[in-house]
Amino acid sequence: MTLGIEVNGLRLDYGKFAALRDVSFKLQGGKIYGLLGRNGSGKTSLLSILASFRKHTGGSVAIGGEAPFENARIVEQVCFIQESGHMTDGVKVRDALKLAASCWPNWDDDYADKLIRLFNLPVKKRVMALSRGMKSALGVTLGLASRAPVTIFDEAYLGMDAPSRYAFYEELLNDYMENPRTFILSTHLIEEVGSLFEEVLVLDEGKLLFHEETEALRSRGAAITGPAEAVDRIAEGLTVLGEQKLGRTKSVTVFGALTEEKRKAAQSEGLEFGPVSLQDLFVHLTKKRGDKQ
Amino acid sequence: MFDDRSPIYQQIADQIKEDVVSGVLREDEQVMSTNQYASFYRINPATAAKGFQLLTDEGILYKKRGIGMFVSAEARQTLLAQRRERFFEEVVDRMLAEAAKIGVPIEEIIGRIEQAKGREDV
Known about the structure:
heterodimer, B: mainly alpha, two-stranded antiparallel sheet, elongated
């Protein structure tokens, strides 16, 4: 089952501070979505609203056509795994798993066991006694085994070492293909997980900057490198996100559709053309004035 | 696994083309599924599917409903023709430009080619 998500003019205020401002998007569902944004951009606020952990101040949210807040039918379809972990620290890992099994109608015990072995989770230990990485591995296990139609991971990998993170990505992808459902992942490790996202949403200072197919967004960026004057001629009229100079060589990162003419002109001038990685694009698009040297 | 120089789906399509040209993938042979590709390269299956779509549009692959994707009968010939067309532009012209840049006379290049030809003739 896939549940679509529709957000319209969403607003969230913390006192006088607007954490989210006029955020609107539509997720068809059944895809892996990446939510990107700098610290304080509103990612956790947005995800908390989707998961009914928080009530929004204005606008509307609908999951499967229904408002999720205090809606039992929707709440049991949405599993939210937070970076900080919201499990009761006093309980044992085994009890946390039992609790989760009773919360999620689609919970898969066998799959949970497989993940416990994969991450070497000590089931007899208390959650509070786990290392940061193990707490995250527990979160990841709960999220995946919940098989919830909408599963949200908010920087769920914190503290996990690289092999564990890659094991997580692999499981996520394979389980998604076997049991298609909606995943939303917020992350700062764009290079590691970027290729898993079918669509990305970029939040910046509480506003939605982009919601696009990952490949489409990526293809809109280009890096042009060559002699400074030639690069400047080509870059004229394009949105320049960033530029670097090394002697007489200049490299600019441009954003926007590059016409075939421009591309040909650049190539005939011997300029080097390269795509921009999602991570670089993200860095350039969310750079603040104050960050520029 | 992938460089950053072109979209991943493009690189997947290029790899399959390379396999067809080199004969690793034969005509009417089934290619791995998008899910197998996705899992192997750890990418979203939709991205892998885009690469496959590119190849179906170009007539390199065809789809058997409910079974999977197969290499077209004329795939290798089509690709070889394309590669031959691009050979002089992409390989020879570039080689000559590089030779001019570093000062290798054309005669030397011709000499080298004749040598290679001589070896082949034997």
